[in-house]
Every structure is written in C-alpha cells, then in structure tokens.
Design goal:
6 strands, 122 residues
Length: 122
Amino acid sequence: MGGRRDDPGLRVGGVERMRFGPKSRPDLMSEGRFLDIVMGERIVSAGTMHRDNIRISATLCTVELTEDVSGGTQVKLTDQSAYLDGSEKPKDRQSGWGKIFEHLGKHLSAGATGDRTKMEGL
C-alpha cells in the first residue's frame, strides 16, 4: 500500500490528512485533528476515514507514553472507532495499527544504529 501524508501540523488544532491504499488506486482518505498534546505524555486526535469520498469510520484516538521498568518508553494506543458502512471491521484497524507500529519499530531501530538511510526510506 502506498500513501501520501500532508503536513501533519502536530499541534493542538492541527490537521492531518493522508491518502493511502493500493499504489494503483489510493482510494482511502484519512482526515484528523489534534485535540490534546502533552509532550512526552499523550496525543489525542479525532478523525474520519473515507473510501471514494464516502465516510466509512469516525475515530477518537489516544496515544499515551509512560516510562517502563527498563527506562524505555511504553506506548499505549486506544482507538475508539465507529464503523459506519460495514466495509471496515475492528480487525482491519488492528492490522493497520500493527503495520504502523512495525514501521515505527524499524525507524527507531535504525535511529539507534545511526543508519539514516533506513530511517528516510520508511
């Protein structure tokens, strides 16, 4: 799946828009707004997802960051979604978030080794 992300404006009130889907037909559009940001603690956003300009879901998403016992960072994601037309299911969203966290892990691992090429390729 390919994707294009507009400037996320990571600030309270900032808007994030992203178009994604198969490279031959990126028919999904996500649009969200950042509602609350406490640096190093949490990000809360709300948004909608559209397929071919038809709203298919609405979501409130909270990402919480806490220190774990090893001194690293624990990330807790809470995704509260309403699936509006039946085309998307919770397992689809779980799969999507899984891919995002997989890419994040690769990005963080590349940063730890200093390999900037890998980080830029994500």
